[in-house]
Fold:
Amino acid sequence: MPKLPIGRKRPWVPERKAQGRRTEETKFYQSSAWRRLRNAFIKDNPLCVECHAKGIVSPANVVDHIVPIRKGGAELNIKNLQSLCSPCHNRKSGREAHQ
Ligand SMILES: [Zn+2]
Structure:
C-alpha cells in the first residue's frame, strides 16, 4: 500500500492591504528616534497639558503631536509635541477623526 502524502487544505488567507499612510505612521512610532525623543519629552513634561489647563494635575502617558503627522506636522520637533493623559488623548483623537 503506497503512502499517500497527507493532503493539507490551505485555507485561503486574504492578504491585508497596506493602508498607505497608516503604515508609514506605525513605522514612525516604532522607530528608535521617536521612542528616544518621546521618553525624553515625557520625562521633562510628565503632566497632561489639557488637564493642567483646567487646573487638574494628571500624569501624562502619551506624547501627542499637536499638528498630526498626517496633516504635515513635524515628527521629531518638540515644539509640535505635548504630553497628554489617555482620556485627553482619546478625546483629541476622536475630535480629529471627525474633522
Ligand atoms: Zn488629561
Summary: The mean pLDDT is 87. Residues 32-44 form the longest helix (13 residues). The pocket of zinc ion is lined by residues 48, 50-51, 58, 84-85, 87-88 (CB under 6 Å).
